[in-house]
Design brief:
Low-confidence stretches: none
Mean pLDDT: 95
Number of strands: 13
Order of helices and strands: EHEEEHHEHEEHEEEHEEHEHH
Radius of gyration: 19 Å
Helix content: 25-40%
Largest sheet: 7 strands, parallel
Distance between the termini: 41 Å
Strand content: 15-25%
Shape: globular
Amino acid sequence: MKKILVTGGSGFIGSHLCRKLLDMGHYVICLDNNFTGSMNNILQLRNNKHFEFIRHDITVPIYLEVDEIYHLACPASPKDYQYNSIKTIKTNILGTLNALGIAKRTHCKILLSSTSEVYGDPEESPQKEEYWGHVNPIGIRSCYDEGKRVAETLMMEYHRTHNLEIRIARIFNTYGPNMDPQDGRVVSNFINQYLNNEDITIYGDGKQTRSFCFVSDMVDGLIKLMNTPDITGPINIGNPDERTISDLANKVKEFIPASKSCIIYKELPRDDPKKRNPDITKANTILNWYPTININDGLKTTIDYFRNVTSREK
């Protein structure tokens, strides 16, 4: 049994990761200030004697004894990370420094959940790990984009300077149960709008593309990266099934046929990427990982979750 710290553990991906690690027989410390996380996401884990929750802001130092760290703490949706952009930068920089401090003191492995946003609005597609990106350093998304780029730099410098064992995962769009229905991400927006018979808002012409990875596949990829020796990363983890935003809207509609929603178009937000598609050759060959959940099965499960959340709220 390992004692594993998951920062951001009550968040969307973090809560699924905590559950999976517990199922694997580990002791899990879930650390979160619940800015975007939710106690509801970990409610069923609280009675597990191998699970511990600590309400704490990772931008403040904390001293723990652990064997591994999955550092996921940071708002991930544009709505959330732009709400308090300075706090987002602090979480990416100070939070990562504090997580690295724990790893250095305890001589443990640490994995950073970086993001496909380090590629910015890419000039090549699909995006390979060797691509340095096309990022606006002073744009409205830069608190997150550049924050994660600095977090990757910190990871590599601790590896080079202190011989710390690190992993860097570049996470692409992920969806599934435990998403915050109000997080403003495209999957959440479309499902909510269809379920509530509201207008479906597509920003831009709808031809911009994304690739959507179901959360269980994402968690499996993170765990495989952590447990694969002699690799630091960065490694892209995502689903290469690229589709337009308009196609996603129509796909969600297939599972909510009774909805009376109509599609409307609004101006594309500044610096919104036109392409987002991972090259996962390294994940496939080095980690022996490839996503297994198709968009139909993933959306059905996610929509069922949103229906249940909506009914509980009512």
